[in-house]
Amino acid sequence: MVLQSRSIVFRARRVWQSDGVLLLDGAVLCRNGRIEAVARYADLRQLKGEVVDLGEVLLLPGFVNAHTHLRLTHLCGKLRPTKNFVGWLARIALRSRLSSRTTLRRAIAEGARQLLAGGVTAAVDIDIEALAAETLQKSPLRLVFAHECISLDPKRAAQTALRMMNLLEKQETIPLRRCHGLAPHAPYSVSRELWEALAKKIGERKAEEKRRWSRKDKPDGTDVRDNLSMSMASMPSFPPFLTLHLAESADEDEMFRTGRGRMVRWLRLFRVLPCTWQPPRCSPVAFLERTGILDTPGIAAHCGCADAADAAVLARRGWTVAFCPGTHEFFRRPPYPLEMLRRAGVPVCVATDSAASNTGLSLMEEMRRAARMFPALTPREIIEMATMIPARAIGWAADAGNITPGYCADFSAWTPCPEGTQLERSWFDGPSPRCAATIIGGEVVWKKSG
Ligand SMILES: [Zn+2]
User: Fold this and answer.
1) CA 356 – ligand 1 centroid, Å
2) How many CA atoms lie within 13 A of 49 on its CB side?
3) CA of 353 to the centre of ligand 1 (A)
4) Is there a common fold for 7-60+405-447 and 63-216+225-394?
5) What distance in angstroms lies between residue 343's CA and the mean position of ligand 1's atoms?
6) How far apart, in whole angstroms, are the C-alpha atoms of residue 142 and residue 63?
7) What's the 360 CA to ligand 1 centre distance in angstroms?
């Protein structure tokens, strides 16, 4: 990757600022892939350097998609919306097994293209056997590959945990470009023993990294990380990134609380649930807390079935929830407990999930759906759910999701350009805004043709 030493100014009719106020005829000065200044164009134009005039657009921070499965992009529109989550899971499992590596690679590449065309500059992709990491080597996206594991066999837990940690170890990390983590799938598809083994391994890894970093302590004993305000991005493996599906369906909830229902019947039918399995008789969130896996903060996808006690656990453990409105609609689920989660102190972001349970991979559509479902959300809250909040959950709080000096020069440019200095709710509620350009690290990586 070539770092630009030149400076570049992006000019836009309106520039979003972190306080939600729109800068009129604004400009962002970028150098070496970072933002150096945000000001009126009139105040920056005397500076030498290239000017990219984006025209009549609203410049927003680049979007961060906190939860997707690019390998399922080819299944967009192939499965009908349904209330039967377990039936959908069965069909997806079969379709995935029947898809060739070539098909999956194409789906991954097409998914990444759709993300870029929708103003996404960073994403967390659930990866299997590092196929996406391999396929997207040249993608300009900032990517976090979360390597998935599924296993309900307690006898294989230690071996699977070791295999996952080894897989993680083998991946090349480029801070802020290519990061890696773990995605143990869900409470109903991972054995208690495997959750515990992974929690233990992650704990060991954290302790090891801490020791390594503490060796770099200053002589007065204070931690170098505090002194240099280093972002998590510069510490690629501390702690390992973690994401999972949680409290997604009533079937999962019933399985854990009662040991009965559609999920249990399906898992027994395919003989993947050991005969010795006993329901923990608590919520899936409470179950995971007992295994120790929630000790390391991460991103929990969905959580639509979480109750107030679950939300308190997630808040206490520092977890962020990725709400996927398209998937929520696809499965015709009951109203999402957004307010309850937020009241408990859980940060909630929006994400697309896979195209197999959505109409596509547009984060803007997810923001519009969230806006429709929750009329009280302010435009600023809606934008933050696709930018600052997911960036923070990945560990990039000081690097991505904001148009502020010091941050990565990641932007998405949108039309129609709103009037005035405030973004109104009507901007989300009207015809779908269109992405005009996507910029990552100060480079235009996607531009609308024509
Ligand atoms: Zn998912």
Assistant:
1) 10
2) 23
3) 5
4) no
5) 24
6) 11
7) 14
Query: Per CATH, is 63-216+225-394 categorized as 3.20.20.140?
Result: yes
Ramachandran assignment for 296, one of left (phi > 0), alpha (psi -120 to 50 degrees), beta (any other): beta
Report every protein residue that has its C-beta within 5 angstroms of ion ligand 1: 353
For the chain, 450 residues long, give each residue's pLDDT as a single digit of tens. Answer: 444 467 999 999 999 998 889 999 999 999 999 999 999 999 987 877 799 999 999 999 999 999 999 999 999 999 999 999 999 999 998 998 899 999 999 999 999 999 999 999 999 999 999 999 999 999 999 999 999 999 999 999 999 999 999 999 999 999 999 999 999 999 999 999 999 999 999 999 888 877 877 765 544 444 444 433 444 444 445 568 999 999 999 999 999 999 999 999 999 998 899 999 999 999 999 999 999 999 999 999 999 999 999 999 999 999 999 999 999 999 999 999 999 999 999 999 999 999 999 999 999 999 999 999 999 999 999 999 999 999 999 999 999 999 999 999 999 999 999 999 999 999 999 999 999 999 999 999 999 987
Q: Which of 315, 316, 261, 250 is nearest to 283 (CA)?
A: 250
> Taking the model in full, what pTM does it have?
0.94
421 CA → ligand 1 middle, Å = 37
Residue spans per domain, the chain: 7-60+405-447, 63-216+225-394
Distance 380 CA to ligand 1 centre (A): 26
Cα of 68 vs centre of ligand 1, distance in Å, is: 6
Whether the CB-CB separation of 61 and 387 falls below 8 Å is answered with yes
| C-alpha of residue 248 to centroid of ligand 1, in Å | 10
**How remote is the CA of residue 226 from the centroid of ligand 1, in Å?**
35
CATH of 7-60+405-447 among 2.40.50.360, 3.50.50.60, 3.40.630.30, 2.30.40.10? 2.30.40.10
